[in-house]
Amino acid sequence: MPPLPANFDLTAAFEALAREFYPGHRLAYRVEWSRRMNRSAGLCYFRRKVVRLSWKYHAVFPQEIPNTLKHELIHAAGVLGHGRRFRAEAKRLGCDVHAKPMPRRPFRYVYACPSCGNEVRTRKRVDFSCGRCARRWDPKFRLYLKSELQGVVSVEA
Ligand SMILES: [Zn+2]
Ligand SMILES: [Zn+2]
């Protein structure tokens, strides 16, 4: 995966979009990555004149960077919320009103039932018995760790 652009490049891209779609507005924003943001693709801090983009989101969807920049640009230009005015501007700029579902942490472990072979994927280590073979904990059907996955990113709605 190619590295994501630096904050400096994001800011330059944002400025270019601002000149294109809001000529005459003075939208002096700084754009920067947030490593921790995991509930939205981006956020516009209107008073602080800062736009933050989620690193986690764009590491999975790098092609969405221009889309997110346009979305945040509309907020930066003073359109708060996602009402009718926002939707009209989104159409004009050619961006989405809602981001894709946020990527979740990848599944890491594959457990299997020693009796029926049922497989269960988890994000952390667990000590369960098979839900198909037993309604409650039963050591006879204790799941065993079958394999560990690496670098598989799942996206769930
Ligand atoms: Zn928004
Ligand atoms: Zn089973």
Please describe what this structure looks like.
The chain is an alpha+beta fold. It has two domains: 7-99, 2-Layer Sandwich (Zincin-like), CATH 3.30.2010; 105-155. 27% of the residues lie in helices and 20% in strands. It is built from four helices and eight strands, in the order αβββαααβββββ. The protein has helices spanning 7-21, 55-60, 65-76, 84-93, and strands spanning 30-34, 42-45, 50-54, 103-104, 109-112, 119-122, 144-148, 154-155. It has a three-stranded mixed sheet. A three-stranded antiparallel sheet has the order 6-5-7, with no helix packed on it. Strand 5 (109-112) and strand 6 (119-122) form a beta hairpin. Helix 1 packs across helix 3 (65-76) and helix 3 (65-76) crosses helix 4 (84-93). The radius of gyration is 22 Å and the shape is elongated. 18% of the residues are buried. The model has no long low-confidence stretch (mean pLDDT 92).
Summary?
With 157 residues, the chain is an alpha+beta fold.
Distinctive features:
157 residues; alpha+beta; Zincin-like; 2 domains; 3-stranded mixed beta sheet; 3-stranded antiparallel beta sheet; 20% strand; elongated; binds zinc ion
Give the helix proportion (percent range): 25-40%
* Termini gap: 23 Å
Average per-residue pLDDT, rounded, comes to 92
Low-confidence stretches: none
Give the overall shape, derived from the CA principal axes. elongated
Number of domains as seen in the coordinates: 2
Top CATH class of the largest domain: Alpha Beta
- What is the CATH superfamily of the largest domain? Metalloproteases ("zincins"), catalytic domain
Note the total helix count. Answer: 4
